[in-house]
Structures are given as structure tokens and as C-alpha cells.
Amino acid sequence: MAKTYFFHNRFGLxxxxxxxxxxxxxxxxxxxxxxxxxxxxxNPAPPIYASLASTKEIAAEFSExxxxxxxxxxxxxQDGGAAKPSDDIAIDEMKVQKExxxxxxxxxDAATARIGAALQTDTPFAERLVxxxxxxxxxxxDKLQVTAFAGNxxxxxxxxxxxxxxxxxxxxxxxxPAMILYLDQAQSFGPNSMIMKRRNRRNPESNGGLNxxxxxxxxxxxxxxxxxxxxxxxxxxxxxxxxGWSVAIGPQAKRIARFAGNVAPxxxxxxxxxxxxxxxxxxxxxYPDIGKDQSTHMLDDVAVHPATARFIATKLARAFTTDTPxxxxxxxxxxxxxxxxxYLPSLYKILIMHEESWNAAHIKYKSPWEWAISAxxxxxxxxxxxxRNIIALLxxxxxxxxxxxxxxxxxxxxxxxxxxxxxxxxxxxxxIIGGLSKNAVDPRLFAxxxxxxMLQKHSETAISRADxxxxxxxxxxxxxxxxxx
Length: 485
Known about the structure:
Layout: H1 3-9, H2 20-23, H3 28-41, H4 55-78, H5 87-120, H6 124-136, H7 144-158, H8 166-174, H9 177-182, H10 194-202, H11 213-222, H12 232-242, E1 245-247, H13 253-259, E2 268-270, E3 280-282, E4 285-287, H14 292-303, H15 306-320, H16 327-340, H17 344-353, H18 368-378, H19 387-396, H20 414-417, H21 420-436, H22 443-451, H23 457-464, H24 469-477, H25 480-483
Antiparallel strand pairs: 1-2, 3-4
Helix pairs in contact: 3-17, 4-5, 4-7, 5-7, 5-18, 8-14, 11-12, 15-16, 16-17, 18-21, 21-24, 22-24, 23-24
């Protein structure tokens, strides 16, 4: 029944070969209790994240970049688009590129911390939940401003809230600067707000106004599920209620911050003068005109809606079992969600205790991220020697960190990760890891430790016939059993 393997891989990030003996003889109850214990011991702020830049520092750097870019563009226009830029423009362009490198360094630093946390954690089930929720509330750092905030988003909006209510996780995610910038909430203004009325008087041709991107994704991807119980009118009502939630970054930062009441230009906040006035009719309920709390009440209600319970239950069941998750597990998770008001640990306990979660017939292939981390953990690696190489390899394997390219996040389906090119990239990395072992590790013992009760006879035989120990290590990492979780 391969339960020890599932303990390490389906519920975790892969076992360490030197720790395999600790769990080899655990029975079902003991394995479940160890997972329950991880929920209590989860550290939302491990030391490896402590040195990362704060939201304020990143915002200041990005604001500097935007101002320099604007100055460079103004100078270019004044220069009449001359083919050869003046010395002043060249200097400003150099400053812009310096800020771009600084912004990208935030991404590298945060991705390095994420890899380190995954390798070092003693609560890998909880860490897997961080990755699940980060992908559920996906941002994509294809946009430069999101690149700067991507790691900060996971650290400050996701990690502290995965052991609380879904409502708090939802609100924390959608109000972080990364999400506001990614889905253009900072460009969403109430058509009848004070600022827009003033702007329209000065410039009747103004094209600014309501942006529905964030409201649409909240309903489609984050809560109720696509084509469920909401209408286009519900999207518009939520979008109007959310007008005013913004972030002050760039040349306009100080002015916008002043509108919000002199808040620091480093985080999201509510600007009443941008908010669309009026009551809202949303999902059959009326919400009075109470400013920023209007959208808060709407998000609180959507977070406990039965459609949200069904949607979240299905996604969690799919992540921990198979592409078509068992109805019994979905129902149990859905009931736990409704009975607890969306208290997330109640769902995690169902996952741990439900027999379908341990069913060996359910097959899920590891994503590139899960496979790479589990391969490194197998060797007891606590910190990658060159994290930039790991980040680049994940790019090659099709799962660049925080870059799913779409608000829906990376797909959680077997077919997506089992293409020939993706497997070739893994085989190349497996060869590299095998080579690094320098024939010093017995691949038969290694395979038996990392795959324990999952290791099949045919894989064991193939590994034992490898031309060298290093090749045997590579074969173990590419064994069908190790590719699954």
C-alpha cells in the first residue's frame, strides 16, 4: 500500500534518504498523527525569509524605477527622437537598467528563499499547502512590477494565512500590491467617484474607469468557480465595490497616498475619492454604501458561499489524489468547509484522515517543482549551491517560479507535466545529480530509501543493472514511482 511513500510525497515534498528509517515502520495512525502535528508546528515566517526586502523597500525601488523611466522618456521626446542620445539620456538609461536589475534581484532572492524553505522544512505538508494556495491565488511575474513583489506576495499574503479562514486568505491575497498590480486594480476607478467626476470635467475624452479584471478572477478562479452561480452583473457589482482599493507606486504615489489620508506609499489602501458610490446588489443580496467595508462584506460572503466550498473542495481533492478526484472526498471536504465557515485546517484534517487520500490507485505525477525539490531533498540537501541554476532549470522544465503566465496558475493535471520535452529536461537534471554523486552512493540502497514501499521489482532490477552507481542514481530519480506522488 505504499503509505510511507505517500506520507513523504503525496503529503510532502519528498523524503530524505537518511531519515527513511524513522518512518519505515510507522502504521497508518502514526503517519496521520505526524501530518496533523505538522499543522501545529508550521512556521509561517521561517528565518530564511527574514532577510528579504520589505514591501516598503520594494515599493520604493519600483517607484524610483518608474520615475527614472519617465524622466528618460521626457528627455527622449525633448531630444526629438534623435538617433544618437545625449549624454544625459544615456546616463538616465543606465540608471533605469540599474533599477531593473535591482527589481529582478528581489525575484531571485525570494525564489532562493522559497527553494531553501522547501528543502529545509520539517513541516513539508504545510509547505505544500503554501505552494497550493500560492498557485490558487496566482500572480504572474511576467510584468516587471509583479516580478518585484512576487516573493513578497507569497511571504506576506499567503504564508501567514493558510492556517486560518479562507475569507482572510482571500482578502489578504486580493489586496496585496502584487495582485492589485497584476490584475490592474490600480487602474479601476469608480465612474461616478469624486476624482473621476473632476477628471471628466477637465478632460471629457478621458478613457479611465472601471476595470473588472480582479473582480472577475475572484469569482471565476478564486472562489465560486468559472461559469457557476454568478452573472456578469455580479462581476460588475463587485468591481464597483472594490474601486478605491489601490497601491501608490511610481510618480503618482505621493498624490494618491495623500488622497488616501497620507498613508505610506508602500502598500495597498483604500482611496474613498476613487470609490464608486451607491448600494450594490450582489449574488441576490444588497450591500449598503459604506465605503471600503462594502467590498469587505461581499468578499466575506462569497468566501463562505456553497459554490466556493464545492470549488475549493474539488481543487484540494484533485491536488492530493488524482485528476478526477473521488466524489466521497470532495463531499467530505465540502461539508467540512461549510460546517467550519471555511476554516482551512478543518479541510486539511479531512485530507489527512480520509481513506481516499491514501488510495494507491490514485496517480498524480509530480510537477517539475515538486520533482526537483524531492530529488534534492532525497540527498538531504538543505540549500542549493547555486539557486540561479535551479531557477533556470525550472524554467526549462516548464514551471518557472511565480510565472504561470495566467491568473489561473499552473495546471494541476497529469497530461500537462508528462510531455516528452518536459521529461527530457528532467532526465538531463537527473543525469547531473547522478554525476554529482560521483559514484559514491549505492543506487540500490538509495532507491530503496527514497521510494521505500513504492519501489517496484522492475525498477529495482533496472537500477541494479546500471553501468555505474551515478547512472543508477539518475535511473532512480527517473523511475516511474519517483515521478509520482
